[in-house]
Specification:
This protein is of the alpha/beta class. Helices cover 38% and strands 18% of the residues. It has one domain: Rossmann fold. The chain is globular, with a radius of gyration of 16 Å.
Length: 221
Amino acid sequence: MFDQIPLDDDTLYSNPEPRCPVVLLLDSSGSMSGERINLLNQALRTFGDDLRDDSLAMKRCEIATVTFGERVEVVSDFASAEAFRHLTIIPNGQTPMGGAVHKAIDMLDARKAQYRNAGLKYYRPWIFLLTDGQPTDRWEDAARRAREGEEKSQFAFFAFAVEGANMDTLQQFSSKRPPQKLRGNNFREMFLWLSSSLKSVSRSTPGMAISLQKPSDEWTI
């Protein structure tokens, strides 16, 4: 699905820039088929292109992608924005969202340990979830971990929903940020907001509080 240059230990040591790790959690269930998945794939390409236009974000942002549909799958491990190349997500299966959130938190814990071992500073990590459905697995413990992790400033959790998603369930994953619902399939606008936000983070100093632009009413409800 993805063509990536993997981040090995040499990359950690050769690039001394502080890092902002981001996990994209993308619903790839069967209900995402058709125009919806086509627009999502196009938006992901736009996201990568836009991040690469910023010299700091290109070095400081690391993107991992996890899909959840037929199964929870790490389709790309952490890679620099410079190396991020999206190809195609193929929808299939149900919506194991709980397992995907567990996977994202575990991945961030492991990546932060690697940063510490390499002596690298890092920004608060991001988990960015997109779904159009209701979890079909045991999601309650994953929601608890997400809430607790965000409350302890271990990461920031952002949830975006398209038509069909259960907003009441999504609200259980964060006590700080309510889920955002898209107008239609405005994935391009959503991912441009994400890349703009990550650029702002990459221009700051790790640990410094910054104000992010709110998602626009033009593409959220």
